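Before relying on records like the one below, remember that each one covers exactly one chain. Contacts with other chains, cofactors or solvent are not represented anywhere in the record.
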Amino acid sequence: MNIGKTGVWSPELRLHRDPAEIADAAAELDSQGWGALWIPGLGGGDILGDAERLLSATGHTVVATGVLSIWRHPAEEMAVGHARLRKDHGHRLLLGLGVSDATAAQRAGGTYRPLAALDGYLDRLDSAPDPVPADERLVGAMAPKLTELAARRSAGTHPFLVTPDFTATARAALGDAPLLAPYQAVVVDDDPRRARATARRFLAPFIEMRHYAKSLLRQGFSQDDIADGGSDRLIDSVVAWGTIEAIDARVRAHLDAGATHVALHAISPRDGLPRTEWRELAPLVR
C-alpha cells in the first residue's frame, strides 16, 4: 500500500458537524495529491463509518485510522468492516491500532497488558473469515517492545508526539522495510508566542496522559518540560510552527531520519475544518 511521503491528520474529518463539508474537503485534499488522510480514534464511535465517508469522497488517497483503540473496537467487527470497505473501495484503508491506556482497558473489562493484548488482537484479525492483511494494518507504537511487535506483525508504526531523533531510533529498531509514519503537529504561524499558544491548547491534555508523558520522558524531556501544558522546548521539539519553509524543514528532518511518511496535523486557532491551513500546506505534498 503506497501512502506517499506526506499526509493530512485531522480530528475535524471526524468531528465536523457537516458531513457534506467533510466530503468536499476530503475531495479537495485528494485532488492536491496527499498520500493519506488520517483520522484519530477519539475514544470510539463509528470510526469505520467515518472512514467510509472519506473513501467515498476520494479516488486515490489512502484513509488511515491513527489510531483506533483495541479496547473499544472488537477485532472481529474491524475485520468484517475492513473487508467490506476493501471490496467497495479497493486497498485504500490502513487500519491503525493502539493500546491506549489502563483506564480504557479497565472500562472494557480487561487487564492492561499492552503487548499481550495487542498480540491477541492481531491473532483475531488473522483468524477472521476475512483476515486483515498485515500490510493493511499498523501500530501506534512508541515503546520498544511494541515497536518490535509492529515490525513483525504489521505494516509498521504510527508514533504520536515524537521528534526526528525518535524517528531515527524507531527506524533502527524496525529495520529497513516497515512503514514508519510519525504524527507531526504543525501551526502555520511565524509569531512564536501565538504559535506556541495555539499548539498548547490542543496538546496540553495529551502531554498530561501517563503513556504519552512516559514516551516524552524516554525521548529526553524532563518533568518540568511536561508541566503546565509543555515547556517552550518541548512544544518547539514536537510541533513544527512558522513558515511553510520551516515546517518543510521538520518534514525533511523526519524523512532524513528514516520516516517513510509524515502525517501533518494542522492545528488552527479557529474552530471547524482548517481548510485555509491545508491549502497553505499543499506545497508539502510529496
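The domain at 6-284 is CATH 3.20.20.30 (TIM Barrel).
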